[in-house]
Amino acid sequence: MACFDDARSIRRRARNGYKEFASRRSNTVYLYSNATHLFLPLRATHDRLRRKNVALVSLLTAPPQPHGGSAMCSNLLKVARKTARAKQKAMDSIHAKVPRETVGRETTNRFRMQFQAAAFAALEILSGKEVDRVYCDYHDDFVVRRSVNGSVEYHFFQVKTKGRLNQQWKVDEIFSLKKNGNLDTQEKLSAIRDSIAGKLFVHTIEFGVQCKEVTVLSNVHFHDDVYEVQQHLSAGQSNRAYIARFIEKFSEIFSPGSPLTGDQLKAAWSKLSLLQVSHLGETLEPFTDAARNAIWRHSEIDLQKHEIDEIANSLVSLVELKSCSPISNLSKEKIELATGIGLDDLLKVLSISTTVYKNLLDGGDPAAIKVASILQRKLKNAGASESMIETASRAKVSWDVWLRTARHTFPEFDLELLLTEIDTRCKAWILSGGVLSDLGTKIDELLTTALAKKFQPLDVDLLLGGFCASIVRRASR
Q1: Would you call 59 helix, strand, or coil by DSSP?
Q2: N or C: which end of the chain has fewer CB within 10 A?
Q3: Burial of 311 (0-12, 13-18, 19+ CB in 10 A)
């Protein structure tokens, strides 16, 4: 306990009827009075303490002073400590009681893992192949759309998770099937229809041939009996009585008003799949690692840790936004935008300009996303604006076209010398810090060389494209 102010200030304040003491380590001021009643200090005192980032915590009446001011300070310190212990005890009491329920927290974790599953599935869009859209919390937990030979196919997912990884899903949890007893009441049939797998089977009926597959996806494994039901369903027959009864009642359960044909039944039975994955968790770490590998696999974009951490958060936030957006009274077009994730959404998450990507794609670049990502990051770090990066992407496309023609027009030796010179100067530019203005200098210097003059069509824009191509090659090694 130390005096907050100097002696002169204390004497002045004592004349006003109170004194102050402060702990330098805790920035806490205790005020006590020589009077027999409590009082409030002047507002100016409060303001001064606030400017010094000091907390005013107590107003105390001073005890008798048989031994002078030191006894007063000692007594004040005891009171302050007692008060602090009481406050700490009051705070600790909330943790000494068992919470009534934590369902809300657990439900939030379940939704977070659902968002992770949808975000991971959406990354396949980057491959530019069949998957072109993922719908979030629309018709099901998420739906993957594929375009195959001009036809649209849908893959429906139910995401079901458990808190402990050593748990397994059982038959009654997935199918609401009991191993004993008949399926002889509407309640039993309705329970199967409303089960996890049952909700997926409804899609196989409603969407017909457009429903390519339905999947129960989880962070834990399935019991062997669950796989047995799935396999026997796919085969259309079973030596287990309860599965055989399920197969027999399938049409009545899922299409009571319109009996299914044999082909429809076989198609529906064969579409169910069970998938256990390890990239779902209460934290983002498993998802982040899996997302980095998926981005590399689908686009060959290699990301640094700080980049993938930010992207992983953005992906999950994007899915959450798409899952929670209200869709009542919206047109089909607006529902498509509100619930679906497409390539444009992923390009934004990856900080890739859509214009840059389309420039490269239209130019016939088979790795347009990868090239766009490299150019975007390297040139942005060099200080280039978005418009300059778009110009560079067009220059890179023009260079690729020119180079294909040049290989048949100019001597191969001269062309290889030019490419080597571009690579050398590009390397020097990168090693020197990669400042945009220096890149312009490197291009101007090369353009005035005797070697460059052998290629009459060469100009600043073409050489900019050549340097961009070199940047991409170096980053891809």
Answers
A1: strand
A2: C
A3: buried
Cα distances from 190 to residues 159, 175, 271, 358, in angstroms, run: 21, 11, 21, 50
Q: How many domains is the chain built from?
A: 1
Task: Give the pLDDT confidence score for residue 42 in this predicted structure.
Answer: 54
Q: Are 21 and 27 in contact (CB under 8 A)?
A: no
Note whether residue 124 is domain-resident: no
Which of 115, 258, 110, 245 shows the shortest CA–CA distance to 175? 245
Tell me, what's the pLDDT at 193? 96
Question: 414: domain range?
Answer: 353-476
If you average pLDDT over residues 203-208, what whole number do you get? 96
Determine, yes or no, domain membership for 157: no
**435, two tokens:** 């400042």
The two three-digit tokens of residue 69, written as one number? 């001011």
The pLDDT tens digits of the residues spanning 374-385 come to 999 999 999 999
The edge-to-edge listing of strands for the beta sheet with 55-61 is 2-3, 18-23, 28-33, 55-61
Contact (CB, 8 A) for 30 and 80: yes
Would you say residue 298 has pLDDT above 90? yes
φ, ψ dihedrals at 98, nearest 5°: -75, 130
Q: CA distances (Å), 153 to each of 134, 193, 378, in order?
A: 12, 23, 38
Rg, the chain, Cα only: 35
Instruction: Specify the DSSP element, H or E, that contains 156.
Output: strand 151-160
Q: What is the pLDDT of residues 314-369, one digit of tens each?
A: 999 999 999 999 999 999 999 999 999 999 999 999 999 999 999 999 999 889 99
- Asked whether residue 58 is assigned to any structural domain, the reply reads no
3-state percent helix, strand, coil for the chain, nearest multiple of 5: 60, 15, 30
